[in-house]
Design brief:
By secondary structure, this protein is of the alpha+beta class. The chain has one domain: Beta Polymerase, domain 2. It is built from four helices and six strands. The chain has a six-stranded mixed sheet with strand order 3-4-5-2-1-6. The two termini are 15 Å apart. 27% of the residues are buried. The model has no long low-confidence stretch (mean pLDDT 88).
Length: 131
């Protein structure tokens, strides 16, 4: 990964977009699948971006949470809230300007966030584990 500066406060849209793309690549490098980054600008006040991905097991979920927390700590970025029950089909990590959704396949099929937010612009997508 290239050298990045994490946003401590809402900066430019371009900087934030680059940051969430870096996170998507980070997830891809750790074998998350079907990664999708949605730009929610003007659609909701809960976040500017959703990063959605599929994980294959609770073991992978636990490892991704650990790795994400370590990655974010390097940049002094703290989660506002999180649902990190690895037995859940949906784990949510809220970082204020973006929210990371880790889904087991059955959770992703059930909640279908891509359909719910179908009007959002896709700014980054990795199908399977490959760009």
């Amino acid at each position: 990964m290239r050298e990045m500066t994490a946003p401590k406060e809402k900066g430019s849209r371009e900087e934030l977009a680059e940051w969430v793309k870096e996170i998507a690549e980070f997830l891809r490098d750790r074998k998350a699948r079907d990664i999708l980054v949605l730009d929610l600008e003007g659609m909701t006040s809960i976040a500017d971006y959703f990063i959605i991905c599929t994980v294959t097991s609770s073991v992978q979920t636990k490892a991704l949470i650990r790795d994400l927390e370590s990655f974010m700590k390097e940049y002094d970025v703290k989660s506002l809230s999180r649902n990190t029950s690895v037995d859940s089909p949906w784990v949510l990590l809220d970082y204020n300007f973006f929210i990371i959704h880790l889904f087991l396949q059955e959770g992703r099929d059930y909640y279908r966030l891509e359909k719910l937010w179908s009007d959002a612009e896709v700014i980054c997508s990795f199908k399977g584990g490959i760009l």
